[in-house]
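User: I've been going back and forth on whether these two constructs are worth ordering. Before I decide, could you fold them both?

Assistant: Sure. I'll take them in the order you sent them. The first construct and its structure tokens:
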Amino acid sequence: MTELSVTIKEKLDSWLNDPSIDETTKQELRSLESNPAELEDRFYRDLEFGTGGLRGVIGAGSNRMNRYTVARATQGFAQYILEEHAGKEGRPSVVIAHDCRHFSPEFALEAALVLAGNGIVAKLFPSLRPTPQLSFSVRSLKATGGIVITASHNPPEYNGYKVYNASGGQLVPHEAERVIGNIQALTSLKEVKRLSREEAEAKGLLLWLGEAEDEAFVETVANTSVNRELMAAGAAKDLVVVFTPLHGTGNMPVRRALEKIGFTQVHVVNEQEQPDGDFSTVKSPNPEEREAFTMAIELGKKIGADILIGTDPDADRMGAVVRTKDGEYEILTGNQSGSLLVHYVLSQMKERGALPSNGAVVKTIVTSEFGAEIARHYGASVFNTLTGFKYIGEKMNEFDQTGQHTYLFGYEESYGYLAGNYARDKDAIVASTLICEAAAYYKRQGKTLIDVLEELYRQFGYYRESLASRTLKGKDGLAKITALMEDFRANPPQDVAGIRVAEMRDYLKGIEGLPKENVLKFLLEDGSWFCLRPSGTEPKIKFYFAVRGTSNEDAKDRLSRLEENVLARVDA
């Protein structure tokens, strides 16, 4: 028996002998005693709390999502909340929401009871709610922090746990490091403080949220409309919309927000309307993938829909599909939707004389320059952040504090958008309302969003982007990803597809005023670029490619050659 096996055995025994761990969990672990490989995977480490919180496969063990790993993380977060609230009046409070995944309600309640055990008021939504509503409610209820139980668009066997600060944003690295330190200092589950539900409720430490918070959120989203009068005057009624929540949390809030603005022809994909933790009608509940829209496209063709929208399980990402003049449906990329929304929001604000002189648009370093060019055309400043909406939220807080800029819009190429200053996380509900509003506005002019996109390409250049990834699991995979990054860092390409590389940006050095992160970006002389970034939530490395061409054909050709050339080196 190796030393590692002894370590695994000790960790397994500690769980089996711990009186605070329930018998069902212990039975699950005993049933695996003839499967040492599975036990090793469940105990070779503690499920890692990163800058985005926890995310992992559901099951018993220290390297799995279960009530005990949730409780441990919450104890560490509770200490952070108490530190943040020190010296302030009243009790600290944390808002908690959850999505439709397996055990999400149970994990949310467990987190609430641990917070209560630490004297923190837990304000819990009794059923599934979108992640952006959690962000909004932390702010509107003036809470000290927030927790949402979700694994975004990961496969059904996953769940996750994300934590938020008092501004409603996910913890940025220096905040997350404090929570991680607290968690690592816990030597035993016995150190977790916890009340029963009855005791927590009796002491006023567990409060239940509901309709008032829902209405406040949806009304705030509706008020983000930039053309509400025109929509109410009939433009919204003329648009035929198909919507799929992909079995997640977006169903009611999206429909209610669209209804408030005046959309009456909203057709929900029936088979995907109800919450389903197995996401049984799709391979992946991810609006970034065409397959997720198969049923929506079928319904769209049947009723002649102008636009199809889909939201992921926790409704922080939105994908859109547009009917073209020939009756076919074209999926918009995250960069295209973001650029269209920048154009629509800023152009309408300008038309009404409401565009501030110090307006700002925020995007990530792997997001297209297309939307940035459009934003500058309207006089807005453009700011880049690292990947992750928490950094966009942090920039919004900075604007609030200094008053030097007015936030107008923020987005990521990965289908995350936010207009308005009411939240600090991406919001598929506001993105859904604005993309439908834009489609209705241009329909009155006899245009589709594809037509508008073509106009913008002719004005600003034919921007095209793509994303590739390589999945490399386990310790060997991690070593390969590390070696690949170091190879490109030590031996940067001098030219790619015949175009000279003008600059290498190594974000591990903390450049451009950004935190250090293991990302490499290569800028070519013709304005194209590519980027290497190991994923923070999955065992993969991502490759981003972007070009600007003189026509659609030229852009497609440039993109194909860039991608082919870089990936040939990667795969070699």
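The second construct, handled the same way:
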Amino acid sequence: MTVVAGAVCLGTFVLFVGLAIVALLSQTGGASDDALFDAYIWRVTRFTLLQATLSTLLSVLFAIPVARSLARRPQFQGRIWLLRLMALPLGLPVLVGALGLIEIWGRQGFLNSGLRWLGLEQPVSIYGLFGILIAHVFFNMPLATRLFLAGLERIPAEYWRSAANLGMPSHALFRFIEWPVLRGLLPGAAGLVFMLCATSFTLVLTLGGGPAASTIEVAIYQALRFDFDPPRAIALSALQIAMTGLLLLLLRHLATEPEEGMTGGRTVRRFDGASSIARLGDGAWITLAFLFLVAPLLAVAFSGLEADLLKLARDPAVHRALLTSAAIALASALASVTMAAVMIRAAATVAAPRRATSLARGFAGAIAASTSLILLVPPVVLGAGWFLLLRPLGDVARFAPAIVVAINALMALPFVHRILAPAMATHAARTERLTASLGIRGVHRLRWIDVPALRKPLLMALSFAMALSLGDLGAVALFGSQDMVTLPWLLYSRMGSYRTADAAGLALFLGLLCLIFTILGTAENDRRREGRKA
């Protein structure tokens, strides 16, 4: 049944994406007359590769020491709030995050104002490649940090006790204990960040500074929105998939299987990091990450507090948008987590040694590839395709909620997969043989074995998916109407009508709602911490 359910999820996934692409291709019935590989396309391709590569390197290199510092300091005051803070960039609409960065790094921002006070005239420009890199690190470094931290926290307690008994120094701990875990997570995290940066649209449009800093995603948008040339848009999407697909194959070739050790389930206690130098270094990395993240968010918060919040809180339009956003976020998150868990379990089942046929390996590979490649299919392509498919059936607005939930669920699937897959693999390695020998299967295994052990990653994945859906604007921009207005769409509308104070207040509401979802997703951490203190 697990394999069948996984096949159904994969088939539904492929059908949903394939029908949208076929609908776009059939709109014009032929290839585009424009040359695909003209000078402009080559230029945006080079810039896409450059900014995505640099953004990935900066995000990952920043995330590794921050994750190590957080893993070594599990008890410092405010740690749980820092982890919750790291989820906020995912839930913020990209435009809101960009505006917060402009408040800090822009021409009249805090940083340039301070540098001018020191006598340096306009030393930093947020626009162009520099601004794009800063924005991508702001949005993606927290994601990579949480992925790495989750892996480091799964290291069995026995490893640390053995290392302490052997007197292993810090560099040996990193080489023999931490690095094998990080090395297994690095290809997936780096590939995910690279795809997010390669498919970036709003950030590049806002901070790019002109045609010289445009990406393939912008070219796809122009082909659909201004030229309405679907075949060219699909060809550009294929170029994007091929370009990043080669990188994913390389990263998969470099990836290593996680080394799962047996554990007695003891509470993890690390004995390293007691020296003054280690404490100073960890504190510096954690403080730097905190300041880098909190400054733009505080800028958004201060701008929001200047709005008439009471008026916005009494606005019926805000009430409807809030309920709509919450309902869509919850539905899409549940769908994404359920689909990911079923597909991961199905892939593990068919890839077991006793079933490792070429067909089984192909099925498992298709599941892994689908959860990554969905990021390369722009939401505007999916939305436009389904708009064309549903238009002959009458008012498209009737189908808008279901389509938006489906698109958001698919867009969150790569994040959910990367959170659940390592945790489920570790759980299976530790419990598979014992549960099989005891004959525990089906609902009983799910209730008594799987759910209690996987509660923490499931809640984290759910909160990530809800935050991503909450901040989505792409799908709603195509299907939004008076009957379906979300908070990001209402915020965009108020900004478009130059009601900047209302827009700032709505951005504050959106950030607080994302924070609430994050708290719910990390509530298990609080309960476990209180249990350890007791």
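Notes on the second construct follow. The CA atoms of residues 383 and 478 lie 6 Å apart. The chain has a mean pLDDT of 78.
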